[in-house]
Each structure stands twice: as C-alpha cells, then as structure tokens.
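Attaching the record inline, Q. Sequence:
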Amino acid sequence: MPAKTMLKSFFRFIIWLALTFVGGTLLSLAGMYLYLSPALPSVESLKDVKLQTPLRVYSADHKLIGEFGEQRRTPIQYKNIPKGYIDALLAAEDEGFYSHNGVSIKGLVRAASHLLMTGEKKSGGSTITMQVTREFFLHRKKHFRRKFNEILLAIEIEKELSKAEILELYVNMIFLGNRAYGIQAAAEIYYGKSMADLSIAQVAMIAGLQQAPSINNPIANPSKAKMRRDWILSRMYELGKIDKATMLSAQQEPVTAEYHRHELDFSAPYVAELARQDAIKRLGKSAYTDGYRVYTSINSKLQAHAQSAVAKGLHAYDLRHGYKGPELRQPNATPEDQLKELKQRPSAYTLKAALIEEISENSLTVRFRDDSTTSIDWSVLSKGLRLFVSENRTKAAPQSATELFNVGDIIRLEAITANPTDAQDETNDSVTEAPQVAQVAQVAQVAQWRLSQIPEVQAALVSIDAFSGDVLALIGGYSFDISSFNRAVQAKRQPGSNFKPFLYTAALENNLTPATLINDAPIVFDDDQLESTWRPENSSGKFYGPTRLRKALYLSRNLVSIRVLRTIGINAAIKDLDRFNVNPDEIPKNLSLALGSYAMTPFDVASGYAVFANGGYKVVPSIVSKIDSDDGTIIFQKPTTVICHSNSHGNSRHNDCDTLSATHPDDDSSYDERQALKALALESQNLENSRFENAGPNAPLEEQSNSTSDAAQVIQAPRVIAEDVAYLMDSMLKDVVQRGTARKAKALKRTDVAGKTGTTNGPLDAWFSGYAGGIATTAWVGFDENQKLGIREFGGSAALPIWIDYMSEALKNKPQLHQVQPSSVVAVRIDPETGERARTDDPDAIFEVFRVNNAPKAKPQSNSNIPNNAIEYHEEIF
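Structure, as predicted:
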C-alpha cells in the first residue's frame, strides 16, 4: 500500500479515535450530569445566604461594648473591597476569574497533568466560584465525584450570580486563621486595621492566607508567610497589576502582623454579659451566629466614670488598711517563666504589673509588660507605707526593700503625677482619719510610683433613670478579668440600714409621722425564730431616749427602727414590699428585718430607691433597650415608660407629667416648675426613637432607616406610694444628707440629694443608696467571702465616696428636681423635743411636714391672737 494511502488511513484512524474519545467523554459527562444533577443543591439559596456573624452589644450612644460568637466576622460589601486586594487574590487564586464561566479548563488540565505524572491529587484547578461551591454545599475531601459536583455547581452559580456577588460571598466566608472568617476580620486580627487601611504588602499577605491558614500564618510562621506574600506580589507584577518599584518596595516590607484582640469602642464587660444572656433567652443559640445587635441603655460616659469611681474607692480602702505584699512570688521559676507570668497578669485599671529583676536594700529595678524597666528608690516607695496586719490594724513598712520583696516577685505600681483624689479622707463622719492615709497623700505629691495592689475587697454600683427605668451604669466588681461574678445582680447581701426607708414608708402609711416619738432604749428579745437571745444596739453603742422618727432615720438609730416595726406589725410592714423589688414571700418574719436582714442585690436596692426618686411610681429597670437583626429589622424594643403625676391643689385636681419643680443648683428659688419635669418626661418618651435616629458616624450600620420603623410601646408606670407619703419620705431622705450620716454628699452642692447609708454587723457590708436629678444610684462595698471590713468602715466611709464620685459626673447639667408639696401635706411648727405642735412663742420650734389627717392639734395658749386651728404651709423644712 502506498505510503500516502497509509498516512491518510492513519490520520483517519486518529480522527475517528479522537471523535470516539470525545464522544465517549461527552456521553460519560452527560451520563454523570444526568445522574448527579438531581441531587445537587439549588444555588438559589446563595442569594439569601446568611453568613455566621457574631452577636454585638452596643451602648446607648452606639459604642461597641461586646462581641460574642465562635467566628469573628465583619461582612464587607463588594464596593468596599480594596482593588489591591482583589488584584492580589486573583493573582494568587484565579487570574481568569472575570473571563471564565466558573470553570478554568487551563487549571483543570494542570491538575490532571500533575495527577498523571505523580499519581498524587493536588489542590489546583479550582476557581473562586468552585471554592464558593465547596464552602457552601460540599466537603473538602478530594474525590473525583466532589470535583465534578464543583464544576456543575460552579457553572450554575455563574448563571445565577454576578461576579461581584460571587466575590463578595467568597471574601466574607473564607477562613483565614485565628478565628478570622472573612478578610475584614483578618485585617482586624492581624493588623488591627480595616482592609481599606492596609498596605499592598499587607493585603498580599491576607490574600495568601486562604490556601493554608496555619502554614502561611504570619504570626505562627512569618518566614513561610513572607515567601507566600512575595510570590503573590511577583504574580501581581507579572499580570501588570503593580509596577516593579511597588513590587520591590512591598517585598522589602517586614512582616508586621501580630494578634490583635477585637478592639471594642468601650469596655463594659459586666453589662455586655448581661446583654448576651438576655439575647440568648430571647433568640436562642442563633444569637451567636445571625448577626443580631443588642443596644443597651448604658451611657458610655457615665459607665466609664462609674468604673473609675469604683476602682478609686477600693484603692482608697486598701490604702487605709495597708499593703499585703507581692501579688505573686516565684522562687523557683526561670527568668523566662517569670516574664511569661508577668505578661499573663490580669489588667487592673491604673495599676501596672511589674516584675522585680534586681533588688537591694535601697532600691528596686522592675520590668513592665512592655519590657520597659525602671529603678525606684525604696525611701520614696516606702514613705508613708503601712503593712496590713488585720482589718483593724496596720504596721510600719520595713527599713529595706529586701525585707519585703525578692527577685522574681510580681508587684503592682501606680503612677503618681499629682495629689490622687483617692488618698483623701473617706471615712465616716464619726471616725477619725487613719494617719497613714494622710501620710500617703503627702508622699503622692513627689513620688513617681506608688506601691499598690489589686483589692481583695469588692464593690458594685447600679445607676437608674428613675423616670424611664433605663440603667445608666452598672459595675459588677473591681475587674471582670479577675472575677466575672456580677455582684450588682448576683450578690444578695444584707442591706442594713439601706432597708429602713422601705420600712419607714409603711410606718407613715400606718399613721406614724416624721414627728412621732419612739424610744431609743435598750431592748432584749427572746424570739423563737432567732437562734439566741437578741440584744440589738446602735452602731455607737449608746442610747438616746425618745427620738423623732425623722431624726431616727437621718441618724440611723437601730433601736427606733425595731420599735417602729414592732409598732406597725411585721405583716403590715411587708404587705406591699414588692413595690420596692422585694419579694414578701422571702422576708424573714422577725424583727431583725428592721435592720436590713433580708438579703438583696444592689440592683434590687437601686430599683427600690427609684420609687422615691420619681415621686412614688414603680418603673421596671432594664438594660436592653432594643435588639435588631443585621438588616435593621427590630426584633425587640423596650416599652417606653411614662410617669404622670396626679396632684391636688385647693379644690381642683389634674393629671399631668409636670408636678416636680426644678431649681437652679445655686439658687433655691423655683423657676418654671412644670417645664422642668415636662422636658424630662418627653425625654423619657422619646428616648428609644431618638437613640437610634441620626446615628451619625458611630452607628454600627451604614444605614439605620429600618431601625426606627416600629414605634415603641408606651406604658404608664403605676403609682405605688401615695403622693403625700412619697413627699414625706423624700423630705426625710434629704435630711439624711443635710444633717445625717450622709453629710459628705453635701459636697455635690445640691439640695435635691437624698439617700440612706447602710452598714451591717461586722461590719460586713457598706452601702449608700440615694438619688438626685431623677437618677437613683446604689453603691455597695464588701468581701465576697463575708470578711469583716474593719471597725472604722461604714456606709459613709466605704460606699458613699464611690457614690459621690459617680454622681458628680451623672448630675452635671441636670436641673435640681424637688417634689411639689401636695395639698394633702401641711407644714406645722413643732417642739423638737416632744414632737407636738409648738406654741407660737417657742423660740426652739421647727417646721415639720405631716399628712393633713395626722397633723398635731394646737394647744391652748395665752397672749396669742393666732387661732388654735391655724396651720402654716411651708415648702421646705431645711
């Protein structure tokens, strides 16, 4: 056969063989398609895909205070993805992304060739679209069937979604190490920045993470990560995305990645945890994944000041009671382990952890967490320093540093730049200032560092808007990092005399008056419900005889309170205690109740005092104001509470929201009384809507239009104390500040400040609860293990300074609010010794206020033209 004929036959055979192969392949592919396609998921679901996004918690002024979820993800829109990152990603993963239909033939051939040549399945050939299908629909196991499914689904996805939509899905769902899902979270974790703020070298680094987040991790393996980054930069140059100078400059850039904690706008961990618990109760576990946002009522400025006030108050307590030694002693640890321990010390406000590296009799050389070092002269550090012996005793510091410290010890130091406010006298009025406190204050003027310690004593603070119920600030302890136990809502402690106003309210309702005389004298009880014979006494150990009810309250006379409770009866006293957030079913049915033996949380105590602060109405305190979804749909919105006072003047009655008067802080004269509370009531009504309108640059979403689509429900707070009794109690609680155990609160220079100190036996607990300007706040100090605070510690020395510090900020620009005297209340001149109506010529007579039906009758008197039934009206009695 001629060669030409044979050549023709050979080519014909090759063509037929090729056609047969192609036909067979097509038939096989068609068969696989027909077999697999019915089982493939619908790509329509990608249009409504919900990426796992953490729960975020915000303050009332839109500051991020908490984030909860297994995956850290901050979704980014396609329009906000930096072009440099897209160029880097496509150079590394899919250079033909914008030209193919979801499948790269070139990539598949490359992967197949590798398989034929090496017999190994190697990653490769997958486009970005195919990777999207794998993440959302398939698994990562390398099977031919999975690869074929990828191809089919990728083609379908390209039909349904645009390239921008596919790329947006991809960059938000990929895992990039260190709990980072999506490129925005990766930028925040590795560089502490937004994607828009990264350099070209940094975006190339992130683009190289997806292939192997652990191997190419710039924190765990910086050299490997740099090799991957530099290769991507060279690919970008080859594809014409950057010029050579840019490539070389970026490749010379050092690896700067390090782990960044998620930066919150503001730290309020106790509040954030309460908001998280609320969200879980309402939404279930989906709260962690579905991008919900919880808005709290917390005012970030007041919360910050509350944290500072608590810390300063506890540091002041520690100064009074002496230094207890190093925070940690490491006698056998290596220098490396000592440094490691230093880095792991919990944060403690202004106190810096320091490792003692060198020590002599006269100086210390310490290293801080940032590896900086300093030498401190012991004569400066020890001047005025006292050492703890017991809660009631201290002793002088040693002459040399070596007597107190060793190399390797970890201590706490506080930088001193001026006289610290926490070194001032913060003891009870009846207690002399501890000498070491004054000495430390003098040292602080010249010392660069002060020896300090993390307090073992704890504190809590709760502040409530008495008209809306919004919790403005809440502190559950000294440091959440040290102890997550939230004492504000979890610690039930005996309130001591903080409970007396609740009891005195019942007394007034049972026809006792502020002028009623009660004998302050010894008393002994044999009560079956008490463990032994009970001999209560006043904190001073003295007895003062017949005492007016008002005076007994502002001087906190215990024996009077016991006799008051016995007079009105326990059942009458506890009947309506639920109005003060007290559960009557849990109340001890014995006379110890008069001294606050019923345990309450600071949150509940503050809730009770809010009733006095708003004139007798019960509001429901709340922390969570609103919950919405990631698209702005409102899931929950707290009802708006409105308080409308009813009052009577003469023969007419009216119902409105403006019966509290307002006075200038430096002037007792009344000005436009109705307008002051009306503005406050309107603020309460509009609080929820105004909080989310015009959110501005700090809003967590670019658009907030949906968040105000639903109007909040408005509810009217019920009156739980009659207006005349509420007025009398307000008057008596103001006297606690003006002339009683809380006189230090006069430093606020306001006449609307009212409240009550509280100290329990031991003393174990110190309280102050009070209000002004429509804000009710409770401060508590004590040990978790119920240790004694010390014989010189009272509510007025330990808790009141914290309260004053916080309220000095909370009351800024707040008008003074005084309840208007109702027509059912009269002011009468009385004899302060007898409580009876005074003669008109009595020079020692004072004014007292009474409910009309309980006002003392006038006694006959000579040489007077004043009728016997004359009653004088008087707005204030002090």
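The first helix runs from residue 3 to 36. Residues 824-878 form one domain.

More tomorrow.
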